[in-house]
Amino acid sequence: MASTIPDPCAKAPSPPAAPERVGRVEAHGIDVIPDDERHGRPRELFGVWAAPNVSYLSLVVGGALILMGLDLWQALGVIVVGNLFWLLVGLLAVSGPASGTPSEVVMRAMFGIRGNRANIAITGWFVSVCYLALNWAAGSLAAFSLAGELGVNPDTALKVVIIVVVAAATLAISVYGHATILRLYLPLTLVLTVVFAVLAGYVLGHAHWGYRPAQPLHGSALWAALAGGLALIASAPLSYNNSSDFARYLPRDTPAVATAGWTAFGAFVPSLLFTALGAIAGTALDMTDPQTALEAILPSWFKPLFLLAIVLGAIANNAMTAYSSGLALQAVGLRIRRSRSVALDGALGVALTLYALLVSNFLDTVNNMLQLMVALLGPSMAIYAADILWRRNRYDGHELSDESRGGPFWYRGGINWAGATALVVGTALASQCVNTPLYTGPIATAAGGADLSLPVGIVVSASVYLLMMRSRRAGGSS
Asked: CA-to-CA distance for 48 and 262, rounded, in angstroms?
């Protein structure tokens, strides 16, 4: 048999990426995960999504519903309905095993190669950095108090050091990546659940189950509070249009129902329980300063554990956010390794955290940002979900990774005008339905102050997208 003479001009094959392993920096970024590196079961997603939602921030948001003037049962009803939006997060996750790519790449199907860079810059990267700051602010406040419990009264310099340490712990998990997150989050979920279960015992002991505000809301004022509360609760699941990031290592033939179900269930259960706990706490405590109010009903031996749980919860939440923000920065077009993009986003998040803690009021920052984000995140998620259903989750990761002119998802000029138009129109109309202390849109004013940004943004954007895509076949750009 004649031997084959190697072509000296041929490009040597790239060495395969090292298999992901706990304690090893993840080699993959936004590239396609090869089939021989796919592994795991969808039930592993439960811990991934549960840990970041056993969250102090959920308590803050639940308490805010009572501050908005709702009675306890109205608040609990809003919490149940708002948390059903985790089903959308589960739906988006199914595109991960199908394509082997993160959400930041899958959305090229909706917006085109160039259009998606602009979309990810705002709905992926910018939103992630804002949430980094928001969660680090919550965790750092608890860390300041924890230092006080240990006999150290932190001055400004020490506060900065604490913020940096909390951020460094978060970014370390993010840099090591998917395998480390998968391994750590289930035990972390169990630890946090035990601590918050003890907290729940003390909160329930002070609860006023028949609580009604001194001046109960009626008519348009009540509908406005219900709509605003729904937008506030839904803002949490709507911020996770990146659920494919954590499902893309699953085998290609993983049942979509299992992927969606374990993702949604893992997030829904703790988010529902701990947001409800915040609302229950609001019936007896002044939740304008939730950490101080909760500490007042806790025994001295438990306070350090409670504060430490807040810090760990913030780290768990932000490790996922920083992981996805690094992928978002790559998807925008920055040609750097994921580990470096995570570090870059972390530095910006720390700067915003310092602003949130040392300049702005924390609770106002939470409410204003989350409510305003709904006008943007609702349309973005609706378009993604509509595309999954329209294509029947048929995504080819290699086609999605083709950024060349004339590629399957180049569309016209690198933009899918159906997605771009739907996002702009949906966001524009939703923004006119917003009712927050920073801005009230004319449609919200005409509706008696009801914030209709959530239903309007979702329905309009999905409808426009499907209407404009109806002449195409479910596939590439044709």
From this structure: 10
How many C-beta neighbours within 10 Å does residue 170 have? 28
Closest CA to 230 of 349, 371, 335, 357: 371
Q: Distance between CA 206 and CA 49 in Å, rounded? A: 30
Confidence at residue 7, expressed as pLDDT on a 0 to 100 scale: 39
The whole-model pTM stands at: 0.87
Q: Which of 368, 353, 263 is nearest to 315 (CA)?
A: 353
Q: Which two tokens stand for residue 407?
A: 């590629």
Residue type, 201: G
pLDDT digits (tens, 9 = 90+) for 24-47: 788 888 999 999 999 999 999 999
List beta partners, residue 435. Answer: 440
C-alpha of 287 from chain center: 24
Quickly list DSSP for 171-194: HHHHHH-HHHHHHHHHHHHHHHHH
Write down the pLDDT at residue 239.
Answer: 87
Please give the domain boundaries of the chain with CATH numbers for all domains.
42-237+245-396+404-469 (1.10.4160.10)
Token pair listed for 286 = 């002044």
Within a 13 Å sphere around the CA of 359, how many CA atoms are in the beta-carbon half?
6
Structure tokens at 202: 């003390």
pLDDT in tens, 140-160: 888 999 999 888 988 888 988
Task: Report yes or no: 166 and 193 within 8 Å, Cβ to Cβ.
Answer: no
What are the E-state strand segments in 338-473? Answer: none
- Kindly provide the residue ranges of all beta strands, DSSP E only, lying in 287-399, ordered along the sequence: none
Give the pLDDT confidence score for residue 361 in this predicted structure: 63
SS3 404: coil
Q: What is the mean pLDDT of residues 226-249?
A: 92
101/17: higher pLDDT: 101
